[in-house]
Amino acid sequence: MGRYVARRLLQTVILLWLVTVLTFGLILSAPGGPAILYEPGITADQIQQMRQAMGLDQPAHVQYFRWLKGLIRGDMGNSLTLGMPVSELIASRLPATMLLSVAALTIAICLGIPLGVIAAVNRGNLIDNLVTLFSFFGISVPVFWYGLMMIIFFAVNLKWLPAGGMMTVGDSSFLDIMAHLALPAVVIGTVNMAQITRYTRSAMIDVLNADYVRTARAKGLNEVWVLFKHALRNGMIPVITVIGLLLPRIAAGAAVTEQVFAWPGMGQLAVRAAFQRDYPTIMGVTLVVSAVVVVSNLLTDIVYAYVDPRIRFD
Fold first, then answer.
1. 279 pLDDT band (50/70/90 cuts)?
2. Are 35 and 50 in contact (CB under 8 A)?
3. Does 52 fall in a domain?
4. Average model confidence (pLDDT) across the chain
5. Could you tell me which residues are beta bridge partners of residue 171?
6. Total domains present in the chain
7. How far is CA 82 from each of CA 40, 238, 255, 286, rounded to the nearest angstrom?
């Protein structure tokens, strides 16, 4: 396992480098630039002066290697619009995104796996059809529309929960943060729960008729124990794959939800940076999200070996 992890870490470094090259090339190929956003009536000479001050008039490879050299030293550069170090911006936004992502993933797992098991046990009857219908709702509903409907119903009509933000001004208590977290976490969690439910159902159907499950039942073991100890563990490999891919997808795809709920996370930062052509910030956010993706994939592979001892990577 040690050699496998070392090999994957080396591949991770190479992959992240390729991501930075591709992202940097796409950013520079986009029309316009941050200088044109400062003043609507700015002249061409003023734009050129600002480009020189920002170092944007240099060749692409010079700009890239200057950024890469700083990254190796732990410096992601400064935001072109805010003037702050990108690392500080990301550090200030990352906890909010991780809190939202972990809460949403917890909701998706805690609802998705039991519903998948229930659907598999009741395959073909009304309960299975209802769970399937609920899953298709989560897969097909647009996140922004779903979020707006939740705001209208729970925040505007019922006034049970706040409509947006991370906390009330002057109140940073745990309960206040949880109240603000509830709606965006439920929206993202229920949308992503659908995939876990479908994969759990399919995996459980495959293993419920296996010999070891029939043997466990013949021994008189409790049905819940049979389902969750014997059947579910042996059918968890495809489910673990989905869960391992959901966390980075939730973190990377939270931009829409964070915009709808005014959640001060990295998604909101990335959207603002894209509109303002803030190249260093876009590069920093892309690098962090890419690192989360590859590390999540590595952790997923390691969990494989724990869940199924037959899997060996060395």
1. confident
2. yes
3. no
4. 80
5. 168
6. 1
7. 18, 44, 20, 18
Share of the chain above pLDDT 90, in %: 2
Q: Which domain range does residue 99 map to?
A: 86-307
Q: Is the pLDDT of residue 226 over 80?
A: no
Token code pair at residue 4? 């496998």
Q: Measured between alpha carbons, how far is 6 from 300 in angstroms, rounded to an integer?
A: 15
Indicate which CATH number applies to the domain containing 175: 1.10.3720.10
Residue 79 domain flag: no
CA-closest candidate to residue 80, choices 106, 56, 116: 56
The pLDDT, as a whole number, for residue 152 is 92
Here the tokens at position 174 are 């745990």
Residue 156 lies in a domain: yes
Q: What is the 3-state secondary structure (H, E, C) of the chain?
A: CHHHHHHHHHHHHHHHHHHHHHHHHHHHHCCCCHHHHCCCCCCHHHHHHHHHHHCCCCCHHHHHHHHHHHHHCCCCCECCCCCCEHHHHHHHHHHHHHHHHHHHHHHHHHHHHHHHHHHHHCCCCHHHHHHHHHHHHHHHCCHHHHHHHHHHHHHHHCCCCCCCCCCECCECCHHHHHHHHHHHHHHHHHHHHHHHHHHHHHHHHHHHCCHHHHHHHHCCCCHHHHHHHHHHHHCHHHHHHHHHHHHHHHHHHCHHHHHHCCCCCHHHHHHHHHHCCCHHHHHHHHHHHHHHHHHHHHHHHHHHHHHCCCCCCC
Q: Would the pLDDT of 17 be above 70?
A: yes
Does residue 171 form part of some domain? yes
Separation between Cα atoms, residue 49 and residue 239, nearest integer Å: 54
Residue 43: the pLDDT is: 67
pTM summary value: 0.78
- Per-residue pLDDT band for 232 (boundaries 50, 70, 90) equals confident
Cα(241)–Cα(237) distance, integer angstroms: 6
What would the mean pLDDT of 252-278 be, rounded to a whole number? 80
